[in-house]
Design a protein that fits this description.
The protein has helices at 18-30, 52-55, 62-74, 148-151, 176-190, 239-248, and strands at 3-10, 37-39, 77-86, 89-97, 103-107, 128-132, 135-141, 164-169, 193-198, 200-202, 208-216, 222-227, 231-238. The chain is α/β, with parallel strands linked by helices. Strand 7 (135-141), helix 4 (148-151) and strand 8 (164-169) form a beta-alpha-beta unit. It is globular and about 50 Å long. 41% of the residues are buried.
């Protein structure tokens, strides 16, 4: 039976303090027993800051190097987003770091204009679907959650494109109802597991985050949720269980065919 072990780290973040955040996250990661994938929040090294000119790094910078070293030492896949500078542009980039030092990345497609993110960062235009142990994982960032077309299962109606939909976030408590509802909706409409990892606590703009990190199954049932408190939650996802749901309720076969330009 194909299984995949995920660890979700819901934590407070030190505002714009990369050294403190990496030290804190290192301790939390080191405290985890057996796991295969460790998920960190959006902009885990700084918080959701609009100062990439001062804080962004290149893909050869210290935070990416820390991810490589940590993934190799712990023999895990490590993922989360951070500020990246590339050819004079800034990206809110999710990195999927493998234990052998190789990586894939996804640049956040939907920039949160309400907070001015579109004024400081460039939008991505390609999805990243990673593969591990027979699971295909569609990787997304925060505000992408509000746009179901971008996450929709595509391709031949006889097949599914991915098995897990993952969001890393700095999603404020004042809109937590939308966060919780949309995570469940994405699971139901795409018949997949959904993993949502959010931060907790106040950021540098005094915006409070309640976390509500969640694991949702393909029926939309919440298997795990934690509000307000820091936590590390490790869970095991079953490919057989997912396949059974899709076989008994083959709703995806009736989905609309489309492509994103």
């Amino acid at each position: 039976m194909s299984q995949l072990t995920f660890s979700l780290i819901q934590t407070q973040l030190h505002w714009e303090d990369k050294t403190a955040n990496l030290q804190m996250l290192q301790q939390k990661i080191d405290s985890i027993g057996f796991t295969e994938v460790v998920v960190l929040p959006e902009m885990f090294s700084t918080g959701f800051s609009m100062r990439p000119q001062q804080l962004a790094e290149t893909m050869q910078g210290p935070t990416v190097q820390w991810m490589q070293a940590t993934a190799a030492r712990k023999k895990i896949i490590l993922t989360g987003s951070l500020m990246i500078e590339e050819e004079g542009r800034y990206y809110n980039r999710l990195i999927w770091m493998l234990p052998n030092g190789q990586y894939g990345y996804y640049d956040k497609r939907h920039l949160f204009a309400f907070a001015g993110e579109d004024q400081h960062y460039a939008a991505g235009n390609k999805r990243l679907i990673a593969s591990v142990k027979g699971f295909r994982i569609n990787l997304m960032v925060c505000y992408d959650l509000r746009f179901p077309v971008w996450a929709r299962q595509q391709g031949d109606s006889s097949n599914t494109e991915y098995d897990i939909l993952m969001y890393v976030a700095n999603w404020p408590e004042r809109r937590s109802h939308a966060w919780r509802t949309l995570l469940q909706a994405r699971a139901i409409e795409n018949q997949c597991y959904v993993v949502g990892v959010n931060r907790v606590g106040h950021d540098g703009n005094n915006i409070y985050h309640s976390g509500n990190s969640m694991l949702v199954d393909a029926m939309g049932e919440v298997q795990f949720e934690q509000a307000h408190d820091e936590c590390i939650h490790t869970c095991v996802l079953s490919k057989n269980t997912l396949d059974e749901v899709r076989s008994k309720l083959p709703f995806l076969r009736d989905r609309d065919a489309f492509s994103i330009l």
